[in-house]
Amino acid sequence: MTLQKKLIKALVVDDSLFMRTLISNILESYDDIIVVGTARDGYDAIEKIHLLNPDVVTLDIDMPRLDGIGTLGYIMSECPTPVIIISGVMYRNSETTMKALDYGAVDFIAKPAGQISLNIRAIEKELIAKIRTVVHVDLKKLPFVLSQKSPDSSIPLPDLSHKAFPLVIIGASTGGPRAISYLIQHLPVAALVGSFLIIQHMPMGFTLPFARRLDNLSLMNVTEAEVGNILTPGSCYVAPAGHHLVLEKQKNDIGIHFDDGPKEHGVRPSMSVTLRSAALLNHPRSICVILTGMGSDGSDGCKKMKETGAVIIVQNEESSVVFGMPGAAIKTGCVDEELPLKDIPNRIADLM
Known about the structure:
The protein is built from 12 helices and 14 strands. The chain has about 350 residues and is an alpha/beta fold.
């Protein structure tokens, strides 16, 4: 007797009948997914979530009556369900996506050609992978992020003139935007003598608003990285989507450059690429932090960093939205510490 595989129940929410049909057809072409219903707007979605109890919701943003942001707020407060945002609004206003992540969306995908995407199958593999991942997410693990800077903002900043500043490289994927926001916001002032790099897997056009969001939360100067940036203490650089971020020695400084080579682990930027370039610098004080995310990006790079004496920290399984990246790093045998997210900011400060 064979056990029947449990199907993933999906609710597809989009104001376009055409898009609801296309997305539903994609999902139902897979044996492990069943579309239990579709909804044309937020009110329709809320009613059907209560009625059908889906395992995952794909949600458009730009809808009549009740838009995706309002719908998401209700879902997360009244009937928490993993939500993936699929919207063309992202191309016009990526700030909306940041807001959706704040409201509790687990992940997001941009429609490849705006609101009505005839080539929606271009995102098929990404969509299916994310649905299969987020259905296992414990929504209670999504960290709460305040909308203002750390309460330590009144404390004087440390001396940032020291040349041998620590280098901190942070990588994440699914669940990462909120985890990184929490980490950056809660860094003690003592940690700000370091120079921080952030590798977050995101589509084109989203890393700049993400950097601006982090800048609003942090005492550091947070920017989207540019070619030619020189790393300085008290600064944080977010790798732009579409480019691998590599570090190179420039006389007595460390400079940022881009590599537009093939994707690694299916992503660009890849944390592994950045870590391998950092390992070549043999920087005397380096910390590698791997946070929540699907896949294994960063695992091979952290082995290289470990060989140079870097400290390797991963987010533990209990606090990770998705344990793929941290788990893959642990399997390499080079991880020094597994910590809950709430403990990582203080641990970084301790290592400075």
